[in-house]
Each structure stands twice: as C-alpha cells, then as structure tokens.
Specification:
10-stranded mixed sheet, two-stranded antiparallel sheet, 18 helices
Length: 503
C-alpha cells in the first residue's frame, strides 16, 4: 500500500470512480492560506453539468479565530425534485477529493436521494483544491511507494527510515503554514461551518471509510446538530494505530481468501488445488519478487516490479470484487514473468502518469492527517516484535496475518518522529445527544473490517448497525438492493430500523 501503507483506509471510494466525472465540470481554483477574514458565506457560481461551486474561508487554527484563514472549496448539485435539504458526502482517505466524489453523484447515491437532496461535496482542508498541502514530488512518491515494507536487514530498515524522513521533512518544507493544522478535529469544525453556510439546522452526512471517522468526530463535537448520518465502512475514533495496522492485515488476508475462492472456480485462474495451496503459491510469488523483480512498464525500463510494488498492486485490487478479473489477469501475467499489467494497474489506482507525475495531492494529505490523528508504534525495534507476532504468532497462538503481518507492522514507521500531534487523542464516543446514526459494515471488507462497524455502533448511544454479507470496501451503492433500500429509507424518510439489520 502506499509505501508500506500507513493504514490503507479508503482513497478507494473515490478511486473506483475514476472516469465518472466529466471534463465539462470546472474544478475550483486551489485556495491558499491568507489574511482574508473567516466567512461562511457561499457565493455560488455555475461550474458545469448542473453543479454550483463556491468557497468559504475558515480559520487555519480554531484557537485563533481572527488569524490567518484557508479556503474550503465546495460543490453542489441542487435537488431535482421535492427538496428535503442538503446531503454532504465524503469519500474517505484521508486525502480523497469530496468534490470529485460529488461530481459522480449519479453513481454514489440513488436517483431518489438526488431528487430530495442538494448533494454537496467539499475538499477538506489540505486536500485537492482546498488549500492543498504539498509534501512530495513525483520521485518522492515513487520512493515512498517502492520502499521495502518487509525489511530483512539493516539496509532495508534504513531505507524505510529514509522514507519516513521524506514524509516528515517534505510536509514541513512544502507547506509549513498548513501541515500543523491538518487533523480530523479541525476538519470536523470546518464541516460545521459548512452546515452553517448551507443554512441547515442539522447536518445530513454520508461518510465512507475515513469519512466515518470524520462523521463520528463531528457527532462527538456537535451532537445536537447531527441529522441523518450514514457511516459506511467504519473507522472507530478510539482505535489505536497498531490496531488499525493489524486489523487491515487480517482484513486483506480475508479478502485474498475470498478472491482465491472465486478465482479457483474460473478457467483463467493462475492458481491451483485449493485456497490454502493458492495462498501458498501467491506468497511464493510475492517473496520471489524480493530477489528477482520483474520488468515493469515498457516505457519506464528502470522501474521494476518489486516485492513492495507487487504487494501494493495486489492489495489495491481487493477493494472491490469488480477489480478481481483485473487482478487475475495481472497475476497470471506476473507468474509468467511479465510485471507490466500489475504495474499499470497500480499506477492507475494511484493516479500516476507515465511521465512520473501524480494526479493530485491525496498521498500528501493522507500522511499529514494520518500521522497527526493517531498514536502508533514507530520505533523500528518495537515494530520488529509486532512483525514477528503478526506473521508467525506467539507461544500457543497462531499468526493472525501470516502473509501480510510483517508488511503492515512496518507501515507505521512512515510517521516516525512526526512533530504534529492532535489535540484530541483517540477516545470512545457516545454522541448521547445525537439523532440515530446508521452504521454500515461489510463482512469481508478488507480496509475497514466488519468488527470495526460493530465496535462503532456499540459505542454510539443511538445507532443501528446495517450488516452486509459481501465483499469489498463499503456497501452502499455497491450492488446490494437490500443495503440501498435501508439507507435510502433512512435518508429520505428518516426511517430508522427498529433493530440492527442484515443484508
């Protein structure tokens, strides 16, 4: 996942929509930190395909409300029928563009929802066009993504620590006025400013993946302003960074098993016998890339498919069952000695162009938020202990993630010596004064495991859990009529299930 992934949470809700937005929609101009006063007024202008665009200004630091401000860019698709109010959407990340997400309105929500709500998307502070943070050049990102996430020796570990230095120094040097102010609590405060700007008494919100953390944080800070909240693919606010890494290691291994179960029924599956044998064959392929990497894209002969890039490519294709055919094709080619399809698919998922540039700043924002929001183990010697426990188990206990444990254990080294700390440490929330919240969780979600949704729903005083027995990351508008009908009834009619629901 991105350079040994500091948690892979999301980026995918938006990534799966690549190609859904139209070039006739005009993206807002990037904003900057300046001395303009904070303002929640929205001067809407048409920006194509029926969307309106506007900018509001919020304090860089809420402890200095009259100090420097930054711009938050917003888009709106007005309701096509009997309007109920505004529905604000967030695709996750942290770092994914809510503006790009909203511009794929016909894909992300149902026609009935679009009939009754103004669909509103925004780029959170530091993201996309909302005063974007800049940490990395294209070569910097290539180095991060390509660093060996399963270090075997001192040189490998030193390379990982160098990668962490790229994150720490790149963000501090690239956006010194902004980097210390990117955290989910301030993003939630911006969200409330957006509610006020929209003229809404209550905030209606659809958050996916990391967007559930943003939504839950909002509910913790502003419970009386919670309207109809759907939190799909839950990331609980109380979860420690190490728990996230282990949970995702287990989640992606489970997703790999689901993929293998399906693959073995296909005539083009490159694996044989049974799921356990297939997992062993895949492990051998990944390990083999350590010593014998494969040629990558023909136009970039110096880029080769290493163990790190191969693993990342595989995991990115597990976010949706719709990507499983691509994964089968890429693995079949890889096992035949051709790494090009796997590299091409990885570049497409990450928005990397053949010239080595990246489409947006989502990775920059991802690291800035992630390293600030949560505590985690970053000391290499302590990470080595976790890697051993997760990959090989402890006395009398089996390994929780034998294939991916080491890879995920070392992920958090990217946040080593991060100088910016959230003012609100991870903690349980109950949102006791909030209206009922609908939490959606998928049984075989690789990035936000099912148990995290159960955990969040149990913490909230007024919540219902909608469980989806399926594959892929998040559930709403992913093919289940059962899930979609429950979510739509809740959003449009305020119909709260009388008990937890399973689909």
């Amino acid at each position: 996942m991105r350079r040994a992934p500091v948690f892979i949470v999301a980026l995918v809700a938006a990534a799966t929509l690549v190609g859904c937005t139209s070039p006739s929609a005009v993206a807002p101009t990037p904003e900057s930190v300046n001395s303009q006063p904070a303002s929640t007024e929205l001067a809407w202008k048409q920006c194509g395909r029926g969307f309106d665009c506007a900018t509001m200004r919020v304090p860089v630091s809420y402890s200095e409300p009259n100090g420097p401000t930054l711009g938050i860019n917003v888009v709106r698709l007005p309701a096509s029928g009997d309007r109920i109010g505004s529905l604000v959407v967030n695709p996750g990340g942290p770092g994914a563009s809510g503006i790009d997400y909203a511009m794929a309105a016909q894909v992300i929500v149902s026609p009935d929802v679009l009939s009754h709500f103004d669909l509103v998307g925004f780029d959170p502070r530091g993201v996309g066009s909302s005063t974007p943070i800049h940490c990395f050049t294209g070569p910097d990102l290539d180095a991060l993504i390509g660093a060996d996430g399963t270090p075997d020796n001192a040189a490998d570990l030193a390379a990982l620590e160098d990668a962490a230095r790229i994150v720490r120094e790149g963000c501090a040097q690239g956006s010194p006025d902004l980097v210390g102010h990117l955290n989910t609590e301030d993003a939630a405060r911006d969200l409330d400013q957006l509610r006020i700007a929209l003229g809404e008494e209550k905030l209606n919100f659809l958050g996916k993946s990391y967007g559930t953390f943003l939504g839950a944080t909002y509910a913790d800070l502003f419970p009386t302003y919670v309207g109809r909240f759907v939190l799909d693919g839950a990331l609980p606010p109380d979860i420690h960074g190490d728990e996230i890494a282990l949970g995702q290691a287990q989640g992606f291994e489970d997703a790999l098993r689901q993929f293998m179960t399906d693959c073995l029924t296909r005539s083009d599956c490159p694996f044989t016998v049974d799921v356990e044998s297939a997992m062993t064959q895949l492990g051998a392929f990944i390990a083999g890339l350590e010593t014998k990497p494969l040629p990558g894209r023909p136009n970039e002969p110096d880029r080769i498919l290493t163990e790190a890039l191969g693993t990342y490519a595989i995991l990115m294709d597990l976010y949706s069952p719709n990507q499983w055919p691509d994964l089968r094709d890429a693995l079949r080619a890889g096992l035949a000695g051709n790494g090009s399809p796997m590299m091409e698919q990885l570049d497409a998922r990450l928005g990397r162009s053949p010239d080595g540039t990246y489409a947006d700043n989502s990775m920059d924002a991802f690291y800035a938020y992630t390293c600030t929001d949560r505590t985690m183990t970053t000391n290499p010697s302590e990470l080595a202990v976790l890697a051993n426990e997760w990959s090989f188990g402890t006395a009398g206990q089996p390994a929780p993630a034998p294939l991916l444990g080491t890879y995920f254990a070392y992920a958090n080294v990217a946040c080593a010596d991060w100088p910016y700390v959230s003012s609100t440490p991870a903690h349980e929330i109950d949102a006791a004064d909030a209206a009922p919240i609908l939490v959606v969780s998928t049984r075989h979600d690789p990035a936000t495991p099912y148990e995290w949704g159960v955990r969040l729903a149990e913490q909230l005083d007024h919540a219902r859990l909608l469980s989806y027995d399926g594959n892929g990351h998040t559930a709403y508008r992913k093919g289940s009529e059962c899930v979609d009908s429950v979510v739509d009834a809740y959003l449009i009619n305020g119909s709260v299930p009388t008990a937890d629901v399973s689909c």
